[in-house]
């Protein structure tokens, strides 16, 4: 097989003319800059906002968004929401610092907690999702997924003072609803009972009411599943039905233990 | 202790003259370029193939491969397989888009699904593994592991239209065999029942037949374990024995629930 | 809302004057250089040690460390320990190669095992934690967490010849104690039974005695929980109480299987 033939065969199979990986890089650079603009003490705030506006235009051009509004108008709407997002994220950071015995300073939360980064990128992506831009917010949260191991769909609804610790393996589905003061540990899935393409417009992920704590690797599935407020879900618990408020759910170990006392 | 003494002590313990981390960087750059060459609408295909050939020569030189064939010959064999790999990956992307209710476009699958990246790098690494190059394909899939949380050994055998969603924590062992149209979710392990160095040449990971779906965090272990075709394995299931075709295996929750109704 | 007003609102909420993300980047560059200095055959050892000393000064300045000792003195203490850390890490690599049937060469362990990278960064961060620098060692291990999916707190105590395979999702808490020749697989949590801010100075994570193997996704919780030496903890096991030496603990599958034989 000649090189020419190989090239032809590859070209035939490249069917998506708008599959530009430059969009992915731009979305990630935009996300990084947003994050540093809000939190880095050394960011030149005014300049950064101007650069963000330019990056936003580039994203709009690359993503071929068909929206009623002009790009400029959309950015103006989005940027007005940034102070409120920052306020919410400061509350998230405070909640993490207040809850984790291993946390020594608020600076540590902002700089070193992957859970904080994941929440921040979700809160920055969610308004773009609501504004009707499907691809860029997904690229933003998927970027955070790569950096942190936390996969939050930008369509999820998450209340105030949200805490994720250790982070790796957390999955929060598109139609999950999380109220205020919820704490989640590594490996927790808020997922669908089963997956079928036809379910695209159905609520298929659970609702977590306020002041609920969900320990590591617990799995909560189903769009009708509601974890009542002030409940504690123990590590490894497997839940596919609703739980009333003020409940404690614990996984019972199912182990066999053999000890060789003569070893 | 003097600086000179520290230097001497460190030098004494550096025992591997071929431990060149440049190889790792080159393998990752090669993987990135392969991926973009196949999928990015903006890649200059002809130039990219030439650069890939040069990068391949560098990898061969760095990895000190002892092979019967010349480097040039090996590349020629590998590059001829690229159109077929691309064809398989397009089928994988189509399967992801067809199955996931949260997926809005095929572009989203290519750009934002870590499961697609993991499968792509596996399919690009596997032929090099079969050609007898042990280290570079491992560096390739380990690169994808870092980016996606999916650890697929390049020696695994994976059929067509393979789907991984959410991705983080998936482990597919060296001797696993996966037939066509299999779907896997986050945290699934296809692993060994136990690990011992002497088992290097034994089939120690399971076989998954066609049209099987394995939901999140299920664990399937053992080289003799066969999941029969058209079976569904529920989330969190723990399986160490074969399951006949057309089975449904569900994990039974083992929870204690206490609700404080007077809170 | 005017741009000026948005800027003012953001500025009001930036409360931490020392939140400099440059510190994070510097800590990561320092970690990378330390790693390559010890392992890369192509590193110019003498120059690298000089550059590391400079980077360390920058870190000290950025982190505003209040310590009794001068920065220079601290670096001198730290650098003297590097040969011993290297010696331990070579033993870790040898243990990985000796145990994993899929490992073909020692080079592969150093270049491609995320578990090795995670252990290396932990061993390089732990002495800085003991020297009383809280933030930089956390940034170091969190960097490794991002790259590998392994979250080891720099305060954990880990003995010799430690092995982590597949890596993603491992969490080892601040007060965990791990003796020699321990093997751990993906998704294992050595965590706290419950989390409360007041527990900051309490031992809340388990002790793993020598020659223990813990298979994938097992969870071991509690500061009083001791896994006795020479024990094997099966995958998915859930342990919140001590286990005597020479024990084998296995998770019993709790599955329902239905097979449609007429399909």
Automatic annotation (TrEMBL), chains A, B, C:
GO terms for molecular function: acyltransferase activity. Keywords: Acyltransferase, Amino-acid biosynthesis, Transferase. The keyword Transferase applies. GO terms for biological process: amino acid biosynthetic process. InterPro entries: LbH_SAT, Ser_AcTrfase_N_sf, Trimer_LpxA-like_sf. This is Serine acetyltransferase. It comes from Sediminicola luteus.
């Amino acid at each position: 097989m000649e090189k020419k033939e190989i090239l032809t065969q590859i070209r035939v199979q490249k069917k998506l003319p708008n599959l530009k990986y430059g969009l992915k890089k731009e979305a990630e650079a935009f996300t990084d800059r947003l994050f540093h603009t809000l939190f880095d003490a050394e960011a030149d705030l005014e300049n950064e906002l101007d650069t963000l506006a330019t990056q936003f235009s580039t994203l709009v051009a690359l993503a071929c968004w068909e929206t009623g509004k002009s790009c400029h108008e959309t950015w103006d709407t989005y940027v007005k929401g940034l102070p409120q997002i920052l306020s919410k994220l400061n509350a998230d950071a405070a909640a993490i610092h207040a809850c984790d015995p291993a946390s020594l300073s608020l600076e540590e939360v902002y700089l070193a907690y992957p859970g904080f980064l994941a929440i921040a990128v979700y809160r920055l992506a969610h308004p773009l999702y609501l504004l009707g831009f499907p691809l860029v917010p997904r690229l933003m949260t998927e970027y955070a997924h790569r950096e942190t191991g936390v996969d939050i769909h930008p369509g999820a609804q998450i209340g105030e003072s949200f805490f994720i610790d250790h982070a790796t393996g957390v999955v929060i589905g598109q139609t999950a609803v999380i109220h205020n003061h919820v704490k989640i540990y590594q490996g927790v899935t808020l997922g669908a009972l089963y997956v079928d393409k036809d379910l695209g417009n159905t609520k298929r992920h659970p609702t977590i009411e306020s002041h609920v704590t969900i320990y590591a690797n617990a799995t909560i599935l189903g769009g009708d599943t509601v974890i009542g407020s002030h409940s504690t879900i123990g590590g490894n618990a497997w839940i596919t039905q609703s739980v009333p408020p003020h409940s404690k759910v614990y996984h019972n170990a199912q182990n066999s233990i053999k000890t060789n006392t003569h070893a």
